[in-house]
Structure formats: structure tokens, C-alpha cells
Amino acid sequence: MKILIASDIHGSRYYAQKLAERFAAEGAEQLILLGDIYNHGPRNPLPKDYDPMGVASVLNALVSKLTVVKGNCDSDVDTLISDFEFVSEAVIFTEGKKVFLQHGDRFSIDKLPKNCGDAFIYGHYHTGFIRRAGGVLVANCGSTSLPKEGTAHSYMVLEGRRLTLKDMDGNALASDEM
């Protein structure tokens, strides 16, 4: 199964639509969002085309293929415009490998979750990367709308045991296998 993983849309209708387009172009079967969907947060500038209701419209159209992990900028009121639930964390299995997913406000490469399995994927920091910490593949999908530290607007594709970080034009930036 091909899964697209992204984070930190922060209310940008432009990047939500671009993400939906990348989801279709990738031919992915599932879309996992790792939080900070609608609100820009007090430390971030307003992203391009800030329109939380527009983001909801784009994402609600994908509800049957969507899993959304709650981020630190997501609130209970966000569920009122969403046709989907927000979960605190998620675990998926692919080809016998366990992948732990969380926004990144509680865990990071420096503080891995207990028993996270073979891989830990998160967002929150807006800086995309794929690295190893001990025997665990650790990845940050970056931010679709507000990347930091000179990193690209990005997302990830998980296909089988291969994880690939891509820019919003679909160009591979990094890749590794569990």
C-alpha cells in the first residue's frame, strides 16, 4: 500500500489543495496528516492563502482515505468543521514493520516514544529529514506550508518498507528503507 504522510498545513488552502493534487498524482491509497491542520499558531506567520474553511473543504472531500493526528495547534473546535476525527497518535504496520506516528510535540528524534517499533514519523518542527537513531528509522515530513531552516515545502511517501521525503513538486529529497 502506498501512503502519503504530511504535516503542518496551518490553514493554507493553497497548500492543502497542492497536497490533494500530490496525493492523486502519487496514486496513494491513504493520506495521513500529522497535525496542525487549520490554525497557523502564534509563532508562525500567516501562510499563503490562509483559509481554514477552505482547508476543511479540501480535506473533507478525502475523508474515506484520511487519518489525522492532532497537533499542538489543533483544538476541539476544529472537529466542528471536519468530517474526520483527530487522534492523538497512530500506529500502522507495513510488510511486518511497525511505524509509530505522532505530531512531534511530545516526541522527537531526541525523545523517541517507548516501543515505537521500526520507524517513528512526525512533524511539528517544519524541517523534513530521514535519519536513524539506534535501530529506529526516524523521519520528519516537514511542513507543507511553512517550512523552516531552509528546508523545502514537503511530504513523505511510505510504500512497503521504503520511506521517501519529497518536495511539493514530487521530487525526491531523501529516502531510506526500514
UniProtKB/TrEMBL annotation:
Domain of life according to the entry: Bacteria
Gene3D superfamilies, per the entry: 3.60.21.10
GO molecular function per UniProt: hydrolase activity; metal ion binding
EC number, as in UniProt: 3.1.4.-
Keywords: Hydrolase, Metal-binding
The protein's required cofactors: a divalent metal cation
Domain Calcineurin-like phosphoesterase as annotated: residue spans: 1-159
Enzyme kind, highest EC tier: hydrolase
InterPro entries linked: Calcineurin-like_PHP_lpxH (IPR024654), Metallo-depent_PP-like (IPR029052), Phosphodiesterase_MJ0936/Vps29 (IPR000979)
Family in the record: Belongs to the metallophosphoesterase superfamily. YfcE family.
Protein name stated in the entry: Phosphoesterase
Source organism of the structure: Candidatus Borkfalkia faecavium
Gene: yfcE
